[in-house]
Amino acid sequence: MTTHHFDPETFCTTLGAHPPALRVQPGDTVVMQTLDAFGVDRHGVACGERPNPQSGPIWVEDAEPGDALEVTIVRLTPSRERGWTRFPLAPNVVDPERAAQLPDRETADWAIDLAAGTVRLTDPPPALADLVLPIDPMIGCFGVAPAGGEAISTSTPGPHGGNMDWRGFRAGATVWFPVGVPGALFFAGDGHARQGDGEISGTGIEVSMEMELHLDLRKRWPIRWPRGTTAGGAEIFTAGSARPLDQALQHATTEMLDWLAADYGIDTVAASHLMGQTVGYDIGNVYNPAYTVVCRMGVGVIGS
Amino acid sequence: MTTHHFDPETFCTTLGAHPPALRVQPGDTVVMQTLDAFGVDRHGVACGERPNPQSGPIWVEDAEPGDALEVTIVRLTPSRERGWTRFPLAPNVVDPERAAQLPDRETADWAIDLAAGTVRLTDPPPALADLVLPIDPMIGCFGVAPAGGEAISTSTPGPHGGNMDWRGFRAGATVWFPVGVPGALFFAGDGHARQGDGEISGTGIEVSMEMELHLDLRKRWPIRWPRGTTAGGAEIFTAGSARPLDQALQHATTEMLDWLAADYGIDTVAASHLMGQTVGYDIGNVYNPAYTVVCRMGVGVIGS
Amino acid sequence: MTTHHFDPETFCTTLGAHPPALRVQPGDTVVMQTLDAFGVDRHGVACGERPNPQSGPIWVEDAEPGDALEVTIVRLTPSRERGWTRFPLAPNVVDPERAAQLPDRETADWAIDLAAGTVRLTDPPPALADLVLPIDPMIGCFGVAPAGGEAISTSTPGPHGGNMDWRGFRAGATVWFPVGVPGALFFAGDGHARQGDGEISGTGIEVSMEMELHLDLRKRWPIRWPRGTTAGGAEIFTAGSARPLDQALQHATTEMLDWLAADYGIDTVAASHLMGQTVGYDIGNVYNPAYTVVCRMGVGVIGS
Amino acid sequence: MTTHHFDPETFCTTLGAHPPALRVQPGDTVVMQTLDAFGVDRHGVACGERPNPQSGPIWVEDAEPGDALEVTIVRLTPSRERGWTRFPLAPNVVDPERAAQLPDRETADWAIDLAAGTVRLTDPPPALADLVLPIDPMIGCFGVAPAGGEAISTSTPGPHGGNMDWRGFRAGATVWFPVGVPGALFFAGDGHARQGDGEISGTGIEVSMEMELHLDLRKRWPIRWPRGTTAGGAEIFTAGSARPLDQALQHATTEMLDWLAADYGIDTVAASHLMGQTVGYDIGNVYNPAYTVVCRMGVGVIGS
Description:
Four copies of one chain form a homotetramer. By secondary structure, chain A is mainly β.
């Protein structure tokens, strides 16, 4: 039950079987420093490369393919007072003929007030002069080394996790990733002070973070896509990633169907009744090379 | 401000410029009887044809193309004690290779207890023996005659509304439809006692209903897709429909961008900041010939 | 075996159950005048409305739902010396970020030389000063009234045919449409002097035409999508329409699988061998509200 | 101008920056042995792992990011007398409700007669008892190590090439790949004795091969997707890969637009005229994790 303080000097832009930067035991906690999406640290210094440089990988003792790595997000603290976003909206989230009318892409700065728990644009357009939003920190990109020898860019999500950009990855949530290689090789980075559904401007409010994460193992639990429980524990969820959104939804839905059958004794017919009348879907991201859809089910209805 | 009681004997399976079955003034209320998705009425009698036979059309005096028809959902009351669903999940919402393993499609009955405000399967599988869910009545299919002389099947949604199957169409919500023909020609039907996101088993809990709807006009308000305010008024929304989900999302997002600019003085750049960091998306349906995505924005952040 | 000369004065912008403009017997030939996509006739006079106004409907005696209407394209003759195209490429056929860099849409004129069998831009950009292309006339939009009471815009294709924009619809091809209503109610229009795959600039070379079509019936042949034989007869084909292209391809492939089983005695396993190693696909259109994919099989390999 | 004979003993299932197995000069020719998609060699011995184990990587002297690797397919010779396919059709290429009716997947053997230039099923179903098809050897999977440190599975295609499965990759074709890492690191494997469009049964006729490839460099030619000239040289082509097919087509179309502008002096407007009225599209594969669409233009019309 050690707590590790992990403040790396090198960072990864792919999730793959890179040499471990830290080794931990199942049950340990890691307090880790992460860079923002462009590689800038808490001091404003550019230390890593785009996109979404990751802190890691972290070797988890005893993790083997067929297990699931359990990551509980204990705390996400922006580690500086300035974040940034890109604008306008991404061309792929508006009608194609409208994309032609979007202005050029630029960067905006946001002031992050941790004491007040708020963010605001430092130089807002007049229409947003009074805009103050609550912070709601989340992890944009985290996951494990994929199976099959792949090394996947931190721009994209997949079965191994990666750049899912779902705002439900906030403090209090627990996530399981399918272990693809010995030691699991966990990575995290790309913190957002907050974000709307879909990351439709191409960014959340990007900021370096101190992330406190509890790492554990669920042995011999062969999952195909990230699974988890939401902050507060009211729901379980699965996260599928692909293009188009339809296929991401198919992955998340199939993973939930499998989960309900294997662990809750709810077969396909019962699951169809239950999911058909109670399921919730979130659009995690609709910007990255693969999109992410999250499928949620209330623990109250599944007898968890 | 007349209240009309509308209990039709004939029903429509397309939304088009059919002869009006009722004529009302803007500001009138209609208490209307609707059939379930297979055409069965409150007495258990088959009166209409599949799919989703509609009560209507209702001519709204003074409605012209370029206006928006305003529909406030005052009350949705299931009008019998039995509803039904189809199962298992639709083959298009699971991975293609998994679709091959789905059992054949069948129909299940649900008991609706209005006094208790609950639904339950009449013959549940053992895993769901104790399942009781709250009712949450919604409209599956409603809208207006499309522009351009089209008559569109009640199986599908589009700019004119139609079979959107979003569970946010519940009592308390207000919806605006783009008027496509003189008199607007409003239709409604396909009530669900409740439904999960996406209508992924192909149905909500299908039931005949008594719907109390307030109809009004917003003159010279040229919208392209259905817009509205959610029950309780905390959010405004737009509803886009197409396949894949990506395109439905593009339509809904573009419509919101246009709305913020025209009515709230929030230009594309400001809207990109605001939507990027606060937008919400719902998957209305992922089953019909066109899918529906709803884009939501909190009225608190847009200065409404 | 009558030959009808059909030169209508009114035109339709939906395919639906409109009053017949001409009545023919199975086996008759129709020599019909059609407008261009904007409604301009052979004299340069605007007679119809956008998009793709159709000549028709033509009632075919004895046609009933469950039959297939057989249309043999005998001859397609542009009926004036000027055609037009739109440019640049449609924003939906290039990468979204590239769509923002496309110039505004404009119209270009083309000279059609029937004697030489060529087309050329009347005011070409320097890079295309010497460009002369062979004409290859085709039908952009034709089909029958849909089943189920629908009236579908001439902008879009579907099971009933419609705006498929496949360049294989040239003289010599035979097409079967699923009869949806009594009399079939056949429509045709939207001739193109030539076109690339996909109609990616949003048009072929649009021109009024004289179309000579032979109409016949195949009784009790319940097809779900347009089928046909290519000019020259070397291949049979099926045409599916939907978005995305993936779904259009699924429709065309499934229709071919059904056809091979029902009429050629080739079951799913044999068809999988055959189609897997010999099938051809064409992208008909990737511009309209629904896209079209054509699935082709050589008659040599299916024992036709 | 050396000719290398390359008969490797180890194989790769990702395209990434692996240690070179062979080093060549630009202009050299490689006669290489490749395994079939399951890793079986010309002697029927399983030597490699699924999927599509590659021979390589081959380091090409002087290749740097920003260059294009030129691969001319000189000869593709199946190196044994038996190939195999999978059947039935893949569930993702038929309508979802039809996928449920497909039989279980199995493997079929094909006899390859190089002298006769034919293939036939060794145990055909009765309907195909007389089926003999011409061989038309092609490369299923080949390409270079991707940029950005990625290692991509041989199951999928991308900007680096990979598992594109287009039947145009036959002898006589020349292909350029964007060099992503020093030395280019070229891989090839997954030969097919023939295949239909789309690889819709999930395989071509899979066989080990002797491939004779001529490797060269085009310095400082920054391309984004594979480009090439077809066998016989009548067309140039670009190959885009993504899901859905719509996006693959966008990539291929945008790459062609860029190519015409940079190398042929044909700007966006002129290219829109030309591509709109003459472009051809092929569906390479509609089975792999990313689909492939090829965009073709006749050299006759572009003044090449």
